[in-house]
Amino acid sequence: MATKRVNKEMRQDMASVPSLVFNKYAGGNKTISIGPSLSILGPLNAAVGVPQGSALWIYNNSGTLAYVAFGQTSAVAAPSSPANGIPLPPNAYTYLSAGENSFVISNAATVFGYLVIDDSLLTIATT
User: Fold this and answer.
1) Residue 61 to residues 37, 96, 112, Cα–Cα distance (Å)
2) pLDDT (tens digit, 9 = 90+) per residue, 41-83?
C-alpha cells in the first residue's frame, strides 16, 4: 500500500514543496514552533477516530508514565507497556502522527488528544 502526503490541490512536483509545508490555518510552516491550530479530541481512554495522516498533540495530565497506541479500527487495544504502545512522559505534551491509522487510544483517562488542523491530507493508493 503506497501512501503520499498531498495538499487538497493534489500537486505532486518539487515546486509544490513550499505549499505542502505551509499550513494556512496555523499561519506558518508545519513545525512545532508555529503555535498550531488545534481541535480538541478529549480524553483518549477509549478509542477516538482521527483522519489518516493527521498530526496530534497528546497531553499526559498525570504525574506517572502513560502509553498511547494507534490502530486501524475502533477495536484497537489500550496499550500497557512500550511493547505495545508509545510512552508519554508525565505532565508533558507529545507530538505524534497517526500515519495510516484511523484510531488512537491510551491506557489512562488523564491522557488528552488534540488534532492539529491542517490543510494537507494523506492519500492511500490501492493497487
Assistant:
1) 20, 17, 8
2) 999 999 999 988 888 999 999 999 999 999 999 999 999 999 9
Q: Is 54 helix (H, G, I), strand (E, B) or coil?
A: coil
Range of the domain at 100: 2-125
What pTM was estimated for this model as a whole?
0.71
- Domain CATH code at residue 25: 2.60.120
Split into its structural domains, the chain has a count of 1
What is the rounded CA–CA span in Å between residue 70 and residue 98?
A: 7
Q: What is the pLDDT of residues 25-50, one digit of tens each?
A: 555 665 544 456 788 999 999 999 99
Residue count (the chain): 127
